[in-house]
């Protein structure tokens, strides 16, 4: 598993020569409605086991949550189930709001 900082993810998303990752937001719906990284897809953590077949195991996936703990657990779960290109956003959307998108609401 890779660990990405908010700035590293921002650089990746801005790099047109590099395919964008699948941004997997594992927070709850109310959190996703409060703030989110553009282009992310909400699949709450507790639904991941039932929805694992909805994910492409060959895709680069960046797991995202509020501070990085839930997404770390999901990233480890995905790796145990054969996903080989999984990253965790260290610091989660909070780090994104502080380091990248200063207009993003914090909670």
UniProtKB/TrEMBL annotation:
GO molecular function annotation: transferase activity
Keyword Transferase belongs to the record: yes
Domain of life of the native organism: Bacteria
Pfam families: Rhodanese (PF00581)
InterPro entries: GlpE_sulfurtransferase, Rhodanese-like_dom, Rhodanese-like_dom_sf
Alphabetized UniProt keyword annotations: Transferase
Boundaries of every Rhodanese domain copy: 17-105
Aminoacyl-tRNA synthetase as UniProt keyword: no
Protein name: Sulfurtransferase
Organism this protein belongs to: Rugamonas fusca
